[in-house]
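Async update (no meeting this week)

Hi team, since we skipped the sync, here's where things stand on the single-chain job. The sequence we agreed to prioritize is pasted below, unchanged from the tracker. I ran it this morning and attached the output directly underneath so nobody has to dig for it. Comments welcome in thread, and please keep replies under the output.
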Amino acid sequence: MSFRSIFSLFSNDLAIDLGTANTCVFARGKGIVLNEPSIVAINMRDGAVEAVGSEAKQMLGRTPGNIEAITPLRDGVIADFKRTEMMLGYFIKKAHNRTMWISPRMIIGVPSGITEVEKRAVRDSADKAGASEVHLVEEAMAAAIGAGMPITEPYGNMIVDIGGGTTDIAVISLAGIAYKSSSRVAGNEMDHAITEYIKKAYSLLIGERTAEMIKMHVGSAYKLDEPMTYEIKGRHLIEGVPKTITVTDGEIREALSDTVDQIVKAVLDALAGTPPELSADIVDRGIVMTGGGSMLKNLDIRLREETGVPLAMAEEPLSSVVLGAGQMLNDFNLLRKISIPE
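Output:
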């Protein structure tokens, strides 16, 4: 046994949901110890890291010319290897109260549609950030475990995990995946659709954070019981000055319609691609939704209308993936069954 693997016996193993929008870290014996935006602020003059996570998010759209706030993950996968490694290293130290010389085993959730090259990038980033062992698990499987679904039983369980970068759908039975799909249409795509709508309809330029706030406050997938409005500030493209406008829930629903339609289609395709016996189970047991994107107002009603299948939200939709991966830290037999082979 190497010095590194002996040392890992005394370290806190970690489960990580390395998300496009947020990174969650679960430490064995402690629970969720960190949940911060997946953002790194870099000083472009010398390449130094100015801030990571929540502190870096505060800088989005507000940085001076020499500092750039970067999201190193795009569509659920690593777009910037070096920055991801920096970010992971920072989060690992923070999760362990900045203790040096830690070498944890890590379980990391990844999208179902990830390529071999992308898998290698995640493993390499974790290795360089100090992991003694790296196990990859599919996010949909981890989310199902985290949502408390009985994945080891001989019944069909359908999970729809809508994150920042990807929507992962899986039908799980006997700890195996009978059907899976991963679409790079999710929460970030919704934000982009809102930004584009505001630009076209009002000639107003808004930032990522404003688009996200609009989505959270008045975004919906199906008509609301009570109409809502939201006041936003941005820069007028023609006049070049700051301007304030008020948008309605109906406008934002229209802006989001294409993105929501694509998510609905992915769920319908999943139901059509599921073996008949498992389909019957899903009709009886329903679909479970997790992920930040699933919290869009009335998305569950829209999906119920389109599919005719009952839907339920996971108790902790934002944390399902990391909670499921965290459970595997204590159940290496289950991990062996469901981890992605190297």
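Quick observations from my side:
Residues 1-11 have pLDDT under 50 and may be disordered.
Residues 136 and 341 are 8 Å apart (CA to CA).
Reply here if anything looks off.
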